[in-house]
Write a structure and sequence with these properties.
Pfam family, one: HTH_1
CATH topology of the largest domain: D-Maltodextrin-Binding Protein, domain 2
Keywords: DNA-binding, Transcription, Transcription regulation
Distance between the termini: 57 Å
Strand content: 15-25%
Number of strands: 12
Organism: Paracraurococcus lichenis
Strand order of the largest sheet: 4-3-5-12-6
Oligomer: single chain
Protein name: LysR substrate-binding domain-containing protein
Family: Belongs to the LysR transcriptional regulatory family.
Number of helices: 10
Length: 333
């Protein structure tokens, strides 16, 4: 006879409930778990929806108070979580070696794929005692429902309960495949009239703004290709489907390897850099701080600096490939 399946509520929601019940405040529970006030509120509501009425808390002005139902659940939940923690510690002690420190990181998907993952081996080589658990999403820092030790997003932005650490700057410029350039050279900006321009639907102003900065605001390309995800525009450029706008940080590896070229390196657009958002509850956590320091060091090493006008070829003169500055080093950081 098959074993009966246990109907367990969402475990992250139970953690949020237990912390809020002990602290008597969603705000204090959020600080303890390193998430936002809104995340605690959503987890508690999820648990209440899963369990059904009556409610677990009475919401007051600046605090929450357990209902009798909530108090009964806390009496069971707290000891259960303690037993789970003790069981995990005993298992780790039997293994004969200290368990790795776990670092839970949430980052933007395209950034993770094109910049973080190719470099993550460097961090693991430097810190073998740290296990990085990476998940991706595009949600704002204060809308994440899970608990993370560090969140990577654009910025700088200000979020209550988080400290912002900048680590990587970038600019945007046109990029295309060498094969496309061989078929139809780009010797001056006006030559874009013979090409397809690749657009991301979420960034409709990037190409018009760049053309205005390049002195050709009225230029009409031979065709346009619009894709719904930014990563797809870079893949389309790699596949020779047209010319895309590439953030320097996210195309640096492709430029260095010759998979992409930048025909007009002297005209670039500023854009938001990348920042690590560290919860205040992790402000003294050595594991999270080690990752922040590594991001800053690697970002300083791998950033492609903007080409100064005196060093860059005039856009009207063109360039067959992106002249990688001597300061760009892609070795171990």
């Amino acid at each position: 006879m098959p074993a009966r399946r246990r109907p367990l509520p969402p475990l992250n929601a139970l953690r949020a409930f237990e912390a809020a019940a002990r602290c008597g405040s969603f705000k204090d529970a959020a600080a303890e778990l390193g998430v936002t006030h809104g995340a605690i509120s959503r987890h508690v509501r999820l648990l209440e929806d899963w369990l059904g009425p009556p409610a677990l808390f009475r919401r007051l002005n600046r605090r929450v108070v357990l209902t009798p139902t909530g108090a009964a659940l806390l009496a069971e939940t707290g000891p259960a979580l303690d037993r789970l923690s003790i069981a995990a510690e005993r298992h780790q002690a039997r293994s004969g070696k200290p368990p790795p420190a776990v670092l839970r990181v949430n980052a933007l998907a395209t950034f993770s794929l094109r910049w973080l993952l190719p470099r993550l081996g460097r961090f693991r080589a430097r810190h073998p005692e740290i296990e990085v658990r990476l998940s991706t999403s595009n949600e704002p820092v204060d809308a994440l429902g899970e608990v993370y030790d560090l969140v990577i997003r654009g910025g700088p932005d200000t979020f209550y309960g988080f400290t912002c650490h900048p680590f990587l700057t970038e600019r945007r410029l046109p990029v295309c495949s060498p094969a496309l350039l061989a078929r139809s050279p780009l010797n001056e900006v006006a030559d874009l009239r013979a090409h397809s321009l690749i657009h991301a639907s979420t960034l409709p102003r990037v190409w018009p703004d760049w053309l205005a900065a390049a002195g050709a605001p009225d230029l009409m390309p031979a065709a346009s290709l619009t894709l719904d995800h930014f990563y797809l525009t870079l893949q389309a450029a790699l596949d020779g489907l047209g010319v895309a706008m590439g953030p320097t940080a996210l195309v640096a590896d492709d430029l260095a390897a010759g998979r992409l070229v930048a025909p007009f390196p002297g005209v670039t657009l500023p854009t938001r850099g990348y920042h690590a958002y560290l919860p205040d509850a992790r402000a003294g956590d050595l594991t999270a701080l080690s990752f922040c320091r590594w991001l800053e060091e690697t970002g300083d090493t791998d950033t492609v600096p903007a080409v100064a006008p005196a060093e860059a070829p005039n856009p009207a003169e063109g360039a067959s490939a992106f002249p990688l500055p001597s300061r760009l080093r892609l070795g171990p950081g």
